[in-house]
Amino acid sequence: MKILITALLLMAASGYSGEWEMIWSDEFDYEGLPDKTKWDYEEGFIRNNEMQYYTRNRMENARVENGMLVIEGRKEQWKNPNYRIDSASWRENREYAEYTAASLITLNKASWRYGRIEVRAKLPRGQGVWPAIWTLGINRSEVRWPQCGEIDIMEFIGREPNLIHANIHYAVEGAHQSNGGKLETESPYGDFHIYAIEWYSDRIDFFFDEIKYYSFSIDQAGQGSENAFRKPHYLLINLALGGSWGGEIDDSIFPQKYLIDYVRVYKEKNN
After folding, report:
1. What does each of the 271 residues of the chain score in pLDDT, given as a tens digit?
2. Which of 72, 150, 173, 210 is catalytic?
3. CA count, 13 A, side-chain hemisphere, 65
4. Where does residue 184 rank: exposed (0-12), middle (13-18), buried (19+ CB within 10 A)?
5. String of DSSP letters for the chain
6. Catalytic-residue membership of 155
7. d(CA 240, CA 51)
8. Which residues pair with 213 in a beta bridge?
9. For 2-268, CATH number?
10. What is the pLDDT of residue 271?
């Protein structure tokens, strides 16, 4: 039933004309930890001065149940194994995290260049939540960010409860550049929605359900083959808490669940 309903939704989506074929998916039709053949984890304090510690292989923060992936943000103390009392690094100078969550990634498992990436999800809510669906270039460890490129398929911050964001990050002559768009919609966290991109050789289109609300011209990031958006990317799905964009956290909201019904990747037929 899930596959049939989704096929009908996809056919109704703006721009869909029957020219896609699925090449990768996780339907979350099992129980337990996320499928280790498809997903790995980020672990620790990672970016943006966020407050959560990302855990690995921990059911309390990432599990599959009732046909969906659950990423759970929790208010709890978690010992930081990288703690150093004399460190100036925000990743090391906190002995304990006060929050935990999870960030699932397909790095070294699966990556794609062009196609449609589609996630049906129900967002968490409340001051301080920052769920995202996004990609990074698989060459990130070699060229670093933002040279690797970043495609933010969906970002949501709890202090702006009626906005969905799309963002692009890249480098031009070594300098960080960003572009983006946003969609105003009432209480997007109240139900499941489809968050998707259609990524072509000349542009990336961003969708909320059937609505295309932003398009990015790839040439803005460079004309040649070294353009970060003409190279393969891997997928990340995470729940951040606080940090540079998430802002102040309301402790009364926890625990918060970020629910993912499925993840599907398509390629253009005959491409």
Report:
1. 344 334 444 444 444 445 999 999 999 999 999 999 999 999 999 999 999 999 999 999 999 999 999 999 999 999 999 999 999 999 999 999 999 999 999 999 999 999 999 999 999 999 999 999 999 999 999 999 999 999 999 999 999 999 999 999 999 999 999 999 999 999 999 999 999 999 999 999 999 999 999 999 999 999 988 999 999 999 999 999 999 999 999 999 999 999 999 999 999 987 6
2. 150
3. 10
4. exposed
5. -HHHHHHHHHHHSTT--S-EEEEEEE---S-BS--TTT-EE--BS-STT-SEEEPSS-TTTEEEETTEEEEEEEEEEEE-TT--TT---TTTS-SEEEEEE-EEE-TTT--BSSEEEEEEEE---STTEEEEEEEEETTHHHH-TTTT-EEEEEE--TTSTTEEEEEEEEEETTEEEEEEEEEE-S-GGGS-EEEEEEE-SSEEEEEETTEEEEEEEGGGG-SSTT-GGGS-EEEEEEEEESHHHH-S--GGG-SEEEEEEEEEEEEETT-
6. yes
7. 8
8. none
9. 2.60.120.200
10. 64
Q: How many CA atoms lie within 13 A of 34 on its CB side?
A: 29
Given a contact cutoff of 8 angstroms between Cβ atoms, the answer to whether 50 and 241 are in contact is yes
| Spatial CA neighbour of 258 closest among 28, 17, 46, 11 | 28
What pLDDT does 185 receive? 97
Read off the amino acid at residue 23: I
Active site (annotated) includes residue 98: no
Q: Could you give the dihedral angle defined by the CA atoms of residues 178, 184, 187 and 192, in that order, rounded to the nearest 10 degrees?
A: -70
Residue from 50, 72, 118, 155 carrying the catalytic annotation: 155
Q: Given the structure tokens 């993912």, which residue do they identify?
A: 260
